[in-house]
Amino acid sequence: MTVSNREERVAPVLELLEQAVQLIGGMTDAIGRLAEEMHRANLIQLQGFLLGRLDRAIDDPSLADSLSTFTDLSDEKRRQMLNANAQYALILLGHRVGALDRSELLGHLKVLRRNPVFTEYWQRSAHGRQDLPPDSFEARVGRAVDAIMDERLDDLDEWWVVGPDSESPTH
């Protein structure tokens, strides 16, 4: 068997192998995208469960005791705190599932900063954020909100001006 004859017989096999590798690579990419979508869907479903519990606790003060660490509040004030928590959680979820980019996340948080109920919620819930792992998404966003809380309210009029993406709180 000559070298050229052998190459003629091996060439189609190599071409099929190349095509198979490309197909497998495409399937791997698709599986990765599917896994990301499933993760986002699971986050949304979990958040739905949690928001459902918050809604029930807002409606029923006896349930609020099981979800709130705030013990010195009236039922009305506790409902406000639970609602502020739900609003904050929805904004975080929006970013985690890709509905809000970093600048939109920060913009929504700066708008919330203007709400006195949210400001009180943020101050009262500081103890809970201290136990978060420092590199967690929630801790990184918490530090961003702390920085926003330290800004003067009149400086927040320019909330759409966002700095570099170096500290992006990613999922």
Architecture overview:
With 171 residues, the chain is mainly α. It has one domain. Helices cover 73% and strands 0% of the residues. It is elongated.
What's the short version?
With 171 residues, this protein is an all-alpha fold. Helix content is 73%, strand content 0%. The protein has one domain (3-167).
Keywords, separated by commas or semicolons:
7 helices; mainly alpha; 171 residues; elongated
Low-confidence region ranges: 159-168
Largest sheet: none
| Average predicted local confidence, pLDDT | 84
Count of discrete alpha- or pi-helical segments spanning 4 or more residues: 7
Whole-number total of structural domains? 1
Give the total of beta strands: 0
Reading the helices and strands in chain order gives HHHHHHH
Give the assembly state of these chains: single chain
End-to-end Cα distance, whole Å, is 59 Å
Q: How much helix is in the residues?
A: over 70%
Based on CA inertia axes, which overall geometry fits?
elongated
* Proportion of residues in extended strands: under 5%
Query: Which structural class do the helices and strands define?
Result: mainly alpha
Rounded Rg:
25 Å
